[in-house]
Amino acid sequence: MAFSGRQVCHRTETEAKVSIAASGAPGNSDEGVNAMEKIVYPIWKPENEPVKEFKHRLLGEVSAQLIKLGARRLTVNIVDEDVAPAEPLRIIATKPPSSGLICMWVDTAIRRKPLEEVIEKAVSRMTGYLVTESEPILNTKHPAIEGHRVHGMNSVVFLTKPPRLSHEQWLEIWHGSHTQIAIDTQSTFGYRQNVIVRPLTYAAPPYDAIVEEDFPAAAMADPMAFYNAVGDPAKHKKNEQTMIESCVRFI
Predict the structure, then answer these.
(1) Is 29 exposed, middle or buried (0-12, 13-18, 19+ CB in 10 A)?
(2) DSSP string computed for 154-197
(3) Containing structural domain, residue 155
(4) What CATH number is associated with residue 15?
(5) Using one digit for the tens of pLDDT, what is the confidence trace for 33-57?
């Protein structure tokens, strides 16, 4: 299989037009938030730094610097103690596994160097990708509050297209068929599909896509909650099997 791993994180979202901008960055109009390009950076924390301190730095000074330098919208996903119950869900294909994911929406990825320099100073390792984002499920159930943790957990999946499929076939199965199956069989309340346009950093793993899925907190430890079948073992079994059968078609 070409599945390249699942990471379970907590997600915090910030927009340049709100409080972080007001506390140190130049003001931005609502129009400026309609950014043109999305860039995604898997990150690894310094080996000896506690997760709590790493998270505090990323959500504090690092986020503020990125906003000041031109990130119009920013999300930071971090593997922390709050998602520890979901540890059994992690599938580690790259060692050591990443510690999180930074996503930024910018006017142009061409001028990303100052942003990358900020991230590089804060982490032990990073890779970067320019992506096109589709959002089959908008998070209207638990909308993000700027600068605060998003409800539940965020499942991040790195995908590599299997050699047996052309790029067009792969996208058709994933977007044209699997997407609705995933929506119907899981308790996801937010769903973002990032198709990779090109890597932005040296020696970035050759992934083809990065998926972000928001799940309720109960899904961390309860498979029935994960598969939207609380109290219904038959539905749980059916949904899980349907999802597995769909996944093997394109991963």
Answers:
(1) exposed
(2) EEEEEE---TTS-HHHHHHHIIIIIHHHHHHHS--SEEEEEEEE
(3) 3-247
(4) 3.30.70.100
(5) 565 899 999 999 999 999 999 999 9
